[in-house]
Amino acid sequence: MAITPLVLLGRIVTFDDDSTVIDDGALYIGADERIAAVQERSAPAPAGFEDAATLETGGTIYPGLMDLHNHIAYNTLPRWASEERAADEPWERRDQWPDDPSYKPKVGLPAKALCEIAGEAVLKYVETKAVIGGTTAIQGAAKVPNYDGWLVRNIEKETFLTGDTSVRQSVRKLGAAQDFATYRKAMVDDKDAFIYHLSEGTADKLVDEFEDLKDNDCLNHRLIAIHCTALGETEFEAWNPESTVVWSPFSNLWLYGGTTAVDKARDAGLRICLGTDWSPSGSKNLLGELKVADVCNTKLMDDAFTDEELCRMATSNPADALSWEQRLGRLKPGLHGDVLVTTTREDDPYRNLITAIERDVLFVAINGYPFYGTAGLMRAAKAKNAEPIRIGPESRSIVLVYEGYPDADMTWAQVRDELDSAHGDPKRHEQERQGRRQNGRLVRMQPDKPEDQGIEVDELTLENVPIPAPDALTHNAAFFRDVERRGYHGGLLNELRGYYQRGL
Known about the structure:
It is built from 18 helices and 17 strands. It is an alpha/beta fold.
């Protein structure tokens, strides 16, 4: 696609090494999809921007957010909690809750069915759900087919037009020596990042998973370890200090009643990033997870992190963890034009991002392409094929159809129609959906959780397993009612409602 050069005017938060904030700045994104300049508004424009689209944002401009832990195939589903387990009895290990009697009918089967009978609509919906919270890159797409034209960057699939991926991942627990050898070689020889679910839960036995990595020489600086809730100061100090821990506090609290000692991990030199996990036990987007991190920082960690450090967990830290620091995560010349613009409600720019909610997101661009924002800013950016979308009480515009991309041919209205059809009568939907797609291409996704991959979806399943209506895009009143009556978080997640009061 040909890009229209953009000039974004407003307060700019760069997240570069000296934490530059420009109160009245201009961000220039060129036709090469890269940031050309970040400077005071009053400074002369660089060459080549004479006919640029100029956006007077009136807001604060950040790098696009990067979600380093997700399972996107599940993100049309609502939150889930055991129907039999007592509310004051959290799980201890990640292998326990998939065996709960309500898990398969409420999570596993609906996810597998939707992936098979409405794969493209699921992808479009969950990526829309991410981008309205400012996310421009997301992990958790390992089982998604290699189709062009999706909305946000899929971290495992992203090649930056080189044709070569640089990220490996495993949800499955490693056991065989060959598994460890394979990923160790990828990190050392291929210089790939390795994203791995590690020691998820609170049981002491889970520390063995860390010891297995250590014994197999896999505590590499390219290791990106998700959860690590069972680990403590001893393990963190034994780790390569350049490694990364990905923190998903909402999901940890919802399932296990506690969360990772990320303050101890940071003190040991480890890099901390944020991830939303998935909708059955996580936040709806990374803006939401920032608020959970803020609550935990205050209530559990005695304000161990500054607001800037919390915000870096969703911007520069993930880019550094992936060795993409020269591509994403900051606003500086030469990097890709992934940007998020929010309203300016706080004097402190980092506090402003932490307290921003979905209605505060004014504009999102990836590679300089305008994908989402207010109607006025999308018009100013000369967005093509923009269509309206309701975000709670607000009206926004989104682009899901891109000229020249055969897989990007599904409008937001069509996405909703497909999911509503799958929800209302899944068997009939599966029988008729071939005729609904103009180009006849069918996307069949696969859930990435091992316990769900072997589930068979047949006509009997589609007749008897209810597929829920799509989970709401925003953290709405229903979300907080659910939080307050379910889960094992001891009331800590109830603190989140206060961030959203003006949006409910």
